[in-house]
Amino acid sequence: MRPGTQIATLAVVVIIAIGTAVLPAMADTEGSSTGSFNLGNAAPSVTSITLHNADHSDPTISDMTPQTEYAVKIEISDANTLNDISEILVIIKTNGTGTGDSDSVTDKATYKWIPEGGGTWSKVGPTGTWDIDASQSSEPDDLGATAGTWWLNFVPGKVARESTSWDIYVNVTDKGSLTGDKIVWGKTMNWYGEISAEDTSYSFGDIGLGDTNKPISTPSDGNINVKTISNGNYKLSSKSGNWSKGSDWAVLDWDGTLDAGHFALKVDGSGDVSTSNYVSTSSEPITDYSNVNAPTAETGDTKEIYQWISVATSGLLPGTYSGTYYVQIANEA
User: Rounded to whole angstroms, how far apart are CA atoms 316 and 319?
Assistant: First the structure.
């Protein structure tokens, strides 16, 4: 017999021997015990915060301007599904303002999302011109998922402080009172300003040829009131042009020479003609208002503008001359 055949036969014998072995009877060799564990509630997590234009488009942005609408994109995850989330707070603030500080028109605004009503965004504070566009703010379509995206569309208030150090902070709370949060820094609030005339007309009354430095007679306080609103330091500038009486013209002079047929206007903010400056046909800063500290009140600050008129000794016909005086507000960094 060949060696290979012997090996195969022996293998068969061994298999049969094992299969026919008789084992002794034994009692039960296993016991059992029931175990359990409790999986605790997982805290939610804010995974991303980005700032966008109001239409939610990319790329992300870092600059804001008061009274312009923007959108915050918030990405959140929760292992217990997004149905576990009970509240989202979004705080937009200056860097030196704490998240627990009171809301203010200059430095902090708070917005909130709750799941009631299928998801509702609202402004918590402050009152005033900070606003929310609830129609464009949203939550994920599927709150049964473990991650999703929220959008908050908001409008910074008129006097949201001009600064390169604005933050966006998000805090999310679940139904077990566990929280997660995230903050992003380095957003910019650009300068904003507006101006309106409270005194829309004024008069110097009766003037004689050759009169100099005659003050405003109407209004009776001798000045023109304008209202300014700004979120950062600003300057007021003014200009005018030639004034007319029908087809007759009085030519604006801005260097004090007062040639025939000319008149000159001086202006300042304190009522002191000795520190005033001439009004030109191009905008020039008004003395006392070349660098005004701000933010102003959100309803505006009233500024008084004093004027004095001088007329040439000849070249002007009798009658009432009228013209337009312009006041402009601009950034003074």
Answer: 9
The per-residue pLDDT of the chain, averaged, comes to: 91
Cβ-contact 292, 327 below 8 angstroms: no
Q: Which two tokens stand for residue 173?
A: 């709370």
Residues 128 and 205 occupy one common structural domain: no
Token look-up 């005659």 returns 214
Peptide bond into 126 cis (omega under 30): yes
Same domain, residue pair 141 and 216: no
DSSP conformation class of 134: T
**Domain's final residue, options 140, 158, 189:** 189
**Alpha-carbon gap, residue 66 to 162, rounded angstroms:** 9
- Give, as one character, the DSSP assignment of residue 273: G
Residue from 106, 96, 249 nearest 189 by CA: 106
Write out the residue range of the structural domain in which residue 325 sits: 193-331
Q: Please give the Cα distance from 202 to 197 (Å, whole number).
A: 11
The mean pLDDT of 239-263, rounded to a whole number, is: 96
Q: What is the CA radius of gyration of the chain?
A: 39
Residues 203 and 175 both lie in one domain: no
The kind and range of the H/E element at 114 are: strand 108-114
Write down which residue in 189, 206, 226 finishes a domain.
189
Is the Cβ–Cβ distance between 100 and 91 less than 8 Å?
Answer: no
Helix/strand/coil percent split, the chain, to 5: 10, 40, 50
* CATH code at position 258: 2.60.40
Q: In the chain, what is the straight-line distance between the N-terminal and C-terminal CA atoms, in Å?
A: 109
pTM of the complete model: 0.85
Whether residue 63 is found in the same domain as residue 91 = yes
The number of C-alpha atoms within 13 Å of 242 and in the hemisphere containing its C-beta is 11
pLDDT digits (tens, 9 = 90+) for 286-320: 999 999 999 999 999 999 999 999 999 999 999 99
Structure tokens at 184: 């992003």
227 in the same domain as 172: no
- The domain tally of the chain equals 2
